[in-house]
Prior knowledge:
It is a single chain. This protein has 15 helices and no strands. With 299 residues, it is an all-alpha fold. α4 (39-46) crosses α8, α5 packs antiparallel against α8 and α14 packs antiparallel against α15 (288-298). The protein is globular, with a radius of gyration of 20 Å.
Amino acid sequence: xxxxxxxxxxxxxxxxxxxxxxxxxxxxxxxxxxxxxxxxxxxxxxxxxxxxxxxxxxxxxxxxxxxxxxxxxxxxxxxxxxxxxxxxxxxxxxxxxxxxxxxxxxxxxxxxxxxxxxxxxxxxxxxxxxxxxxxxxxxxxxxxxxxxxxxxxxxxxxxxxxxxxxxxxxxxxxxxxxxxxxxxxxxxxxxxxxxxxxxxxxxxxxxxxxxxxxxxxxxxxxxxxxxxxxxxxxxxxxxxxxxxxxxxxxxxxxxxxxxxxxxxxxxxxxxxxxxxxxxxxxxxxxxxxxxxxxxxxxx
Length: 299
């Protein structure tokens, strides 16, 4: 595949776009998106391998998918406080990128029916993602069931978007098969999120989940230890600064009091669901090894 920076430049550095978005630094947008991992466009392409010949239009479609994920990540970071957007310029840019990305789909050389189906899929799954984000922002997660529901919508929807868009672009029209693709994509999204939650314990000084008292998966286990640091913090008996000073205690609690195997139980549970769902989809029986390799990439 060509260097993604070139693909993004071809998509965005057009006279009409540059004139319309004269207040934005398009070169910086291209640099920001190009410097990220292209996991989601890779995931999209996996759903095309062996079904169609991948060409330039698919590479451009993958860039649009990465652009959509980039803007959702930006909004998430602003809302969580990971990005300080004092003047609101980053928020404004994210809102600009959403309609821009969707409008770029119209310029790809696919049939009108395919374009419309991809746009409808994008809109439906972005709404799903936003609903999951709202549940997270409201600290609406009370138990493991709430957590799984939230992550299936929030992170899972982005995986489902990339996978199903790839299948549609490859010519898949069967709605039943597309639903199966969304299912296995969501399961993989949950696995990825749990690994991120585990990282949050070790990176608590830079990750805002604990600062915002989010009930991420390891916390759902640890907060019920009445004598533990996390339990005291989530009952507001400790401030965030006091929690940070006890970081090593938190890590020991995670590693020694059952939270780690608790998280890995859920990882294995969703890995199993992912594997079963992929195997049941006749589209990908030729490429199971590649699909199963994504479990290793999550680890």
